[in-house]
Structure formats: C-alpha cells, structure tokens
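hey so i finaly got around to running the thing on LppX_LprAFG lipoprotein from Nonomuraea indica. pasting the sequence first so u can double check i didnt mess up the copy paste, my clipboard has been acting weird all day
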Amino acid sequence: MLKRRISLATAAAGAAMVAVAVAGCGTNAQPLQVNLAASEVLAQAAQKTAQATSYTVDAVVDVTHPQEGGGKVQGRMLYQSKPQLAVDLTLDTVDLGRRSVPGGVRAVLQGDTLYVKVDAFKEMLGATKPWVKVSLTEADTSGEAKRYLDQIQQFDLASVTKMITTSQDVKSVGTESVNGEDTTHYSGTFPVDVAVQQLPAEEQERARKGLAHLKDVKFDLWAAADGLPRKLALNGAKDGATLNATLFFKDFDKPVDIETPPADQVGELPKRTTG
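ok and heres what it spat out for the 3d tokens, dont ask me to read them lol
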C-alpha cells in the first residue's frame, strides 16, 4: 500500500538517484525566520511542509552513472493529501539509461487507484485503451505500474525537507528573488546514511538502496517568509555517478482539481504472459 506521504527516497531507488528542488513564494516583508539559526529554519521548513495539504511542483532531474549512463526526468505535478490522497503527474521527459519512455508519462492517483497513460503500454502489454488503472495493491506487484508509481514518488517535498534537517553545516548565504519573490537562501550538505534514518522504518531500506551511490548531498534551499521552502537544489557525486536536481513549488494549501480519466478511456492493466 502507498503511504499517505509519498517518499522521494523510494523514488530514488526506482529512478537511480533522483532528487528534488523547490521554488516559489516570498514577499517584500522581512522574512519571519530572520532571527532563527539556519538549522532552526530547516526544522521549521520540515514541520510546515509535513503539514501542507496541497502544492504544485515543476521539476528537472539529471543523473549520470558510470555503468548505466545518463538520464533526465522533467515534469510537473499537482498534489493533495486531503480529503484524500490525490496526485496528477505529467512527465514530459523520462530518459533513464535504458528506460526511456517515448511520449512521456501521465499518471493520476486517486485514493487507492492509480491511472497511467503511456503510449508504450500498447506495444509492451497490449493495452487497448489510452489509460490503464491498477489498485495500489496490484501496483506494488506489477513491474510496469510500479515503475510509474515510482516516478510519482520522486516529487515528495515533506520527505526531502526532513532529510536535509540532518545537515551539520547549513548556513544562510543571503537573500534572493525566486520567481520574482523574496526568499532567504540557505546552503549546506547532509550525510545520506543519517538522513535516511529520518524516514519511516518501512521506507529506509529502499531509500538507502536508491541513494547508495552518494555519500553526502549538497543542497541549496530558498525559504519564504511563511517558513515554507520555495526552491531546493540537490547535487551529489561519487565514483563517476552524479545527481543534479531542481524543483519549483508553488500554491501551497490552495484548492486543486484532480480528476480521474473518463471511464470509456480506461482499461485494466493487461497481464503479462509467460512462456
């Protein structure tokens, strides 16, 4: 079953070192966190993002690996946690080594049902409708559906901000405008092995596996006056593997409209045959 909070670290396992960054809101007013230590700002951001009930995110993630080659994921997502978990994800680019997806991916999650639209499903699985649907229980055991569920999971803001609170060297590096709004810029690093321990126990092993190629991750976070992060850039490298990611978030706690596909456009996920 998918957890109420979708885990970025889980996505990293499925997408080979994926990461997140954030952008967005600020005002001309003096930042509320101006008198807080940088580490306190991170704690505040983690608390506030865990409480956020909705947001919109645009993301670009670039990775390289000495054996698996380079890759890129680019897209946008609408997220809400109440009155029920719902996600609307569009990935214009999914190019992860040998896992490129021509035409991109569209996915909608409503409650315990995942809807996926991928042109390649027709060729790979014999799908007859533009969309296929899978219950989350089935998605846990279906390789193709699980792959795209993992793509949704890479956009989790709450888990990422929680992980960066383990930084021991974060510092304020000034104020900057992000998308035309005032933010305070913080920079530091966090140790992957310690950061993973901040996640729920059932997610730690998958996160550890997904981030195994990196020891320390550098981050830059831009926080607005309301204490919420608006931009977060993650960068890491080790033994020829690299990670560079940037996400832009906006519209925290604003109403979102996430609709399921029309019923006549939805089919069941075809079963693979063996032999």
